[in-house]
UniProtKB/TrEMBL annotation:
Pfam name, any one: Ribosomal_L38e
Residue ranges that the Swiss-Prot or TrEMBL entry lists as coiled coil: none
Family stated for the protein in its record: Belongs to the eukaryotic ribosomal protein eL38 family.
Identification of the protein by name: 60S ribosomal protein L38, putative
GO terms under biological process: protein-RNA complex assembly; translation
Highest taxon above the source species: Eukaryota
Cellular component, GO annotation: cytosolic large ribosomal subunit
Keyword RNA-binding attributed: no
Entry GO MF terms: structural constituent of ribosome
Keyword entries, A-Z: Ribonucleoprotein, Ribosomal protein
């Protein structure tokens, strides 16, 4: 019998910790979601999904540059409001 346990995402609070995760070899994919004031990074590793919310745009750009080139990155921009 195989039992699958769904693990909830882990939120990373420290900038240095997310940099350490990005340099580890267990990353599979990264999603970068940008809205008006925050940039959210969702880092899929072998076991967990880690999330980091960055309010500083300079730090967000630094994190984008720190992502290894061979990792699949999906950038999601804020949706435009619907016209009525």
């Amino acid at each position: 019998m195989v039992c699958f346990i769904q693990l909830s995402p882990k939120q990373v609070q420290e900038f240095k910790q997310i940099l350490k995760l990005l340099k580890s070899g267990s990353i599979r994919a990264v999603r970068v979601k940008t809205n008006g004031e925050n940039t959210k990074f969702k880092v899929r590793c072998a076991k967990y999904l880690y999330t980091y919310i960055c309010a500083d745009k300079a730090k967000a750009e630094e994190l984008k540059k720190a992502i290894p080139k061979d990792i699949h990155v999906v950038e999601i921009a804020k949706k435009a409001p619907k016209a009525e």
